[in-house]
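Quarterly update, task 2.4: zinc ion-bound model.
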Amino acid sequence: MPKASKNELQSIYQDHKVQLLISKFVSTKLEAMNPIFDPKRGVRYPLVEVVIGDDSNPEKFLEKLYERGVLKRKLYDKIIHCPSCSSANVSIHYTCPYCKSFDIIKRALIEHIKCGYIDTEDHFQKESKLVCPKCNKELTNPDIDHNRAGVWCSCNECTKKFDIPVPSHFCRECETHFSFEDATYKNVYTYSLSPVTKKEATIGWIMIGPILDFLKDHGFKVKSPGFLDGKSGTSHMFDITAISGKTKNTTVIDLSTSDDVVTEQSVISMFAKIFDTNPEKACIIAIPKMNENGRKLASLYKIKLIEAKDQNVIIEALKECIKK
Ligand SMILES: [Zn+2]
Ligand SMILES: [Zn+2]
Ligand SMILES: [Zn+2]
């Protein structure tokens, strides 16, 4: 799989659209995103259209994320496009190898095992029964008294008979007939989060995107990163600042992540900023959890502590927080 360096990946993860897409995978526990087929437009990924807007190019967006190692992919289907108008509204025609007409009839071949007679099914059909035209015995048991011995085609145009027709394509939009040789034959993929992204989505900054969206949906004006001026004259940076539309109160949020346990140091440095800027509410999100000292200090400093493994837990905790 092609890959971006760690720094490049970090900058891709900062892209709000990328954060949103990853967050959709995580919040809906989506393992693999399959394309849907639209006869007019070809392959579509509705989830991506929601994220980037449907006049953009979802396939290009996904391709780019695959190339950078954000997503992985698997071949899901192959789609035929018309070489003249590039529509995917294409049907397959089985044609006569002699005159190229698609006006052919396909019939099953039946073999009467006892007498060895082989012919097409229509010659055996007598009312609703199958009767051998050679020995006049009725055939009742498939696989015991008769076999299906393949298919046999006949052409309504030139009346010739053959067993293997030649596939050809017909564009329903511009009515062009074309062969496999001329067809545009395109790979279609199913996408899922790469292992790196999966890990990042549970411990990293990708979670900022969904948190911002949640706060905006609840009437907050958000900034990330956000800055507040302190009494000391210093401007302090928080991962998120959110101003309530109703009360005009300011909430500051910092995220602190660790592979294991977040230490009290993050609480101490947040307190220093709060002490200077005095926001109405402060919240620290520890991913995946805070150590015991950090918990005690957060409670002492009146910093709301959220310990979370993934964005779903954070959003739930923020809901509680907003109610209060
Ligand atoms: Zn066409
Ligand atoms: Zn023919
Ligand atoms: Zn027979």
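Highlight for this quarter: The chain has a mean pLDDT of 90.
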